[in-house]
What does this fold into?
Amino acid sequence: MASTPMDIDDVPSTTITPTLNITRGSNSATPLVSTVSEVISNFRPTKLFTRDDVKEGRPNPHILSIDFDNQGDLCMTSESDETIQLYNVKEGRHDKTLFSKKYGVKLAKFTHTASTIIYASTKENHAIRYLSAHDNTFLRYFEGHEESVTNLSMHPGTDNFISCSADNSVCLWNIDTKQFTGRLFLNAPTLSAWDPSGVTFAIACPLSGTILLYDYKNYHKGPFSSFDLIKVLGPAEAEAGLKGWTKLQFSNDGKHILLGSRGKGHFLLDAFDGTLKAFLRKPNGSTRRRAPDENDNPNIEGSGECCFSPDGRYVLSGGKADIAVWDTLAAPNGNKILDPVHILEEKREAAVVQYNPRYNMLATGDQELVFWLPDPHA
It folds into this structure.
C-alpha cells in the first residue's frame, strides 16, 4: 500500500483531536482540543493511499464502505477486489489486508471489539460473516437472507445489529447467536439506522417512500411511527422520494434523521415527527455510484456519500468533486432549500464519506482512500 503525503502531511498527530471541547487543569483557560465548528471549514486532504498491490494495467478497486472503530483509532474499507483494508489513523499508515476471495465482501463494520468485523457476502451465498481481524479467521456465519444484503447497522451500545436485504426482510441479530433473534417482512427495506440511545431503530423503504420507526424491545408489535416521504417532500420531489436512497442516519443529538439521495440533494428530517427541516442542495451533483435499491443501474454500488459530524450539527457530502458542508442550525430559504456553508476542495470523486467518531478527521474514497485533517495554518 503506497501512501502519498499531501498538502499538510507534516501536521503532527496531536492535531487529530477529539471533538469534545474539554479544558484540563484549573489554571488552563485554553481548551486542549477543538470543537467541530472551529475546524469544519479548515479540513484539507492530508494523506492519499493508493493500492500498490494491484497488477500493472488494472485500475484500483472501488472502495465500497468506510468504517471507524469505537475509539477512532482504526479505519477500515471494504473493496471491490474482495479485500478488507485496515489503517492506523493516528500513524496515518496502512496496517493490514484481509482477503475474502471466496465469499466477496461489502458493508464491513467494526463490532464493539476492534479486532472483530462483520460484513456482507457478495458471492456463494448471502450470509453475513463474523471475522477476527487478528488472524483472519471466521468466528460465525449469520444465515437467513435469500438475496443481497443492502445495509448493516451496529447497535450503538451492544453487539446487536440489523441487516436489510433485497429479499424483502429485515433481520435482527445478536452477535453471539447464529440464528437471527427477530425478523420483519417489509416492502423493499433497503436501509436501517439506530437512534443514539439504541432504543429505537428506523427502516427506510424507498419503493413505498416511507421510513418506519420501531421500539427495539417491542419491534414485533410493528412500527410506532411512519414517515411518508412523498407527503413530506411534496409533488415536485416525488421522484426523489421513491428511489436512489443511499444513506439513513440519526444525528448523535437525536434531533435529526439524514436521508441520503443520489438526486440533487439530501433530506434533513425531524427525528420526532418526520417533517422536512431542509433539502440539502448539492452544488456539484451526485457520485456515479448506484443506490442499494437501484438494481437496474450498472454502476458500482455505494454505501452513502454523506454523513453527520459527531456533534450532529453538520452534514458532509461527497460528489463528483469537492466535499460540501451544511450547517443544520442555518435557516433554509422559503422553499426549505439549504445550501452548503463550506466547500472543501477536492479534485477526486468522493463516493464514500465518513467522519471519525472520536477525532476531527475525515476519510473519503472512491478508488483511493484519503485522510483529511484540519489545516492548523488556516
